[in-house]
Amino acid sequence: MSILNIFRRKTSRQIAKDRLKILLISDRVNCSPEMMELIKNDIAEVISKYMKIDTSNMDIQISKTAGGTGRNGKVPVLYANIPILDLRN
Amino acid sequence: MSEVIVVTSGKGGVGKTTTSANVGTGLAEMGKSVVLIDADIGLRNLDVVMGLENRIVYNLVDVIEGNCRLKQALIKDKRHAGLYLMPAAQTRDKNCITPEQMIKLIDSLREQFDYIILDCPAGIEQGFQNAIAGADHAVVVTTPEVSAIRDADRIIGLLEANEIRKIDLVINRLRHDLIRRGEMMTVDDVLDILGLPLLGVVPDDENVVIATNQGEPLVGKGSMAGQAFYNICRRLAGKEVPFMDFSKNVTIWTRVSGLFRKSLQEERA
Question: How far is CA A21 from the centre of its chain?
Fold first, then answer.
């Protein structure tokens, strides 16, 4: 790995493409940030019944997966990353 | 059997009217009978792009409201025998007609014309609903920019929801110099995101501005954009036409700077 890698910037083409991909996923499922927050809170509440989780660091987003029947052969999926603090019985 | 094509985009200013004018003119040049309908009521512009603004007496709303006969509102083009324009009303708004009235109007034009081309207004409100109501085929125009692609995606969703099965994409204002530098999304990037069949790619060309100034569509007139629009017309008529290679337009300087950039990239990698 060369020191030049530090200076290698992403082209604006790549930035545009990456931004659009994320933007269109939420546009297509018609899911507002407010609704995502509600979903996040509800999930946190349910999981908390069974184990102690770190709600401040939990991450919920809609992304997409290959192999669906959608326009690009991809379907949206709900992705949740929930750090567990303590596995209670 | 006539084909009803709506030219739409969602975002304004990406080239719907230019595309409508050039596609209509190109199809007429190929000997087809074509009517261009300006569905942008209140903000009509297809008449000026076609250079026919001084000939307007009646418009689309007059026909729908029964103030004139259908034929009286059809303006014959200056240069092409089979080409007509039905202008939009300028002093009314988009809510003064309904999708049902548009379907009726289009059906009354089907016998007379091979192609009925509707220039859709920007936005997703009533004007959009009116313009797509009677369409068999939608041509979505976008530019390789984030805002235009986002709106195009929304429009495609709405077209699908309205059961328009045939949807094609035109990518307008492509700048090969920016693409070469990695500062513009490529045709493949846009296709990857929107997932539509490609109907045409039109390069950014100053001749479009000149043609609009003069009120004469540039289709088939030797410019890059004119050739690209003519190719779109031929594809619409069912011909297989290879996509233009804009990278041919490379000067010695861009080659040298391209080599320099390439060697820099190799060094980095």
Answer: 12
The reply to whether A69 touches chain B by the CB within 8 Å rule is no
Of A73-77, B16-20, B41-45, B84-88, the least confident = A73-77
Per residue in A26-45, pLDDT tens?
788 777 778 888 888 999 99
Three-state secondary structure readout of B113-162? CCEEEEECCCCCCHHHHHHHHCCCEEEEEECCCHHHHHHHHHHHHHHHHC
Chain A residues touching B179 at Cβ < 8 A: 13
Q: Is A72 touching B (CB cutoff 8 A)? A: yes
List pLDDT tens digits, range B89-101.
999 988 899 999 9
Where do the domains of chain B lie?
A: 3-268
Q: What is the ipTM of this complex?
A: 0.80
pTM higher than 0.90 for the full model?
no
Which residue among B153, B189, B193 places its CB closest to the CB of A13? B189
Q: Which fold has domain B3-268?
A: Rossmann fold (3.40.50)
Provide the pairing of β-strand B83-86 with B75-76.
antiparallel
Within 8 A of A8 by CB-CB distance, chain B residues are: 268
Whether the CB-CB separation of A84 and A75 falls below 8 Å is answered with no
